[in-house]
Automatic annotation (TrEMBL):
PANTHER family (alphabetical): ENDORIBONUCLEASE LACTB2 (PTHR23131:SF0)
UniProt source species: Georgenia deserti
Organism placement in taxonomy: Bacteria, Bacillati, Actinomycetota, Actinomycetes, Micrococcales
Domain Metallo-beta-lactamase residues, every copy: 31-195
Name of this protein: MBL fold metallo-hydrolase
Highest taxon above the source species: Bacteria
């Protein structure tokens, strides 16, 4: 089970509210964060990542959106993974709202999306998956990152398997560089992740993530040079043989790192 924290549903800013899904776990932390975006005084609501197919969660999203006469007019997805998207059919059935991102129509980098008077900017952030995007709320200098940056810990880079939606470590490292630039230029001051608590001072967190990834690359490279002959042996060398509940994730990350290093075990 995830570490217990005070993170829960509720408003993050005057424009952004979280409805926390009831799907906690090792990979999802406290659960999936479904975000509702709405300009104060406007009725139109954009939903970011509806979350799992859970009737209670869908009802909670609808109720939160309907507060003060709000209505859901669009659904946008940071990426295609099921813990972010399974509720899409139920939410579409209830609202008729169009859907963008994930397995639906893709976004262009820099595209502006409007929900009533609220403007949202699309930022392509591939790495965790090939289709990952983040959403910038310029009025709040807030970036919704899906699984690109989590509220705690590090994301899994899903191994590239020929699917354009697969993860890629090179893309992820470039994405981290981009996010650091957005912070350094003063465009982002806060991060609202797909799982875990919001990050109020994301600059140091992102820099630590970059160093962590580079350190892992060094460890994988050393394991291969020491004679590791398959992915499992690299996982044991880097993560330890006891990494049972996270072994799948560790294997995915190792495969992504091996791809980046150009190493194949045939």
């Amino acid at each position: 089970m995830p570490e217990v924290t005070s993170w829960r549903s509720g408003p993050l800013t005057d424009r952004v509210r979280c409805v926390l899904a009831p799907n906690p776990g090792v990979m999802t932390l406290e659960g999936t964060n479904t975000w509702l975006l709405r300009e104060p005084g406007s009725a139109e609501v954009a939903v970011v990542d509806p979350g799992p197919d859970d009737a209670g969660h869908i009802r909670a999203v609808l109720d939160a959106a309907a507060a003060d006469g709000g209505r859901i007019t669009q659904i946008v997805l940071t990426h295609h993974h099921r813990d972010h998207t399974e509720a899409v059919p139920g939410l579409v059935h209830a609202t008729g709202a169009p859907v963008r991102g994930g397995d639906h129509d893709a976004f262009d980098d820099g595209e502006r999306v409007r929900a009533g008077d609220l403007e949202i900017e699309v930022v392509r952030t591939p790495g965790h998956t090939g289709d990952s995007v983040s959403f910038l709320v310029p009025a709040d200098k807030l970036l919704l990152t899906g699984d690109t940056v989590l509220g705690r810990g590090t994301t899994v880079i899903t191994a590239h398997t020929g699917d354009a939606r697969g993860g890629d470590l090179g893309d992820y490292l470039r994405t981290l560089d981009l996010l650091v630039e957005l912070i350094d230029f003063g465009r982002v001051e806060r991060i609202a992740p797909g799982h875990g608590p919001a990050l109020d001072n994301p600059g140091p967190v992102l820099r630590r993530l970059r160093e962590h990834r580079r350190g892992r690359l060094d460890e994988v490279r050393a394991a291969v040079e020491a004679g590791a002959e398959d992915v499992d042996q690299v996982v044991d060398a880097v993560y330890g043989a006891g990494a049972n509940d996270r072994r799948w994730a560790a294997g995915q990350s190792v495969r992504a790192q091996l791809d980046y290093l150009g190493v194949s075990f045939g």
